Amino acid sequence: MSGVTNPLALDNQLCFPLYAASRAMTAVYRTELDALGLTYPQYLVMLALWERDGRSVGDLCTTLSLDSGTLSPLLKRLESAGLVERRRSADDERRVGITLTDTGRRLRADACEVPLRIAESTGMSREDMETLRDALQRLTRALTAHTHPKEN
């Protein structure tokens, strides 16, 4: 940001375009996900389970960067919708496993078109989207490391 005359100008901030892009992206997803009966956070849970079924709540929390207080209500709604089942581990009752139901597995086929439609809505090339995704992942790792330094 060298040469910036007003470091507090909204147009000179990194946070605002990230915030605005996140809101715009979520709005586009909302339109697509309404047909599936999912909210955006529920979709993220389903993506993680479609990638690897039978995850623990703790694993989902880590994968999705959510705390259990946020994830638990999502899982309850997905269970009420008949998409997932929650089961306590027989070995350790503190551990809860999440598995897809047959309905949850079938929903994957309907969801397969969502990423393509989202990509089309961006007007970006695949290469540009991958570059942006990679840059955002690096930014997230750097910010996470800065705010949560590992204990030595």
UniProtKB/TrEMBL annotation:
Kindly list any coiled-coil regions of this protein: none
* The entry's keywords: Cytoplasm, DNA-binding, Transcription, Transcription regulation
Alphabetical GO CC annotations of the entry are: cytoplasm
Where does it localize? Cytoplasm
Task: Extract one GO BP annotation from the record.
Answer: response to stress
Q: Where this protein primarily resides, as one coarse class?
A: cytoplasm
Organism of derivation = Nocardia aurantia
Give all residue intervals belonging to the HTH marR-type domain.
11-141
MF terms in GO:
DNA binding; DNA-binding transcription factor activity
So which residues are the signal peptide here?
Answer: none
Q: Which CDD domains match?
A: HTH_ARSR
Q: Name the chain's protein.
A: Organic hydroperoxide resistance transcriptional regulator
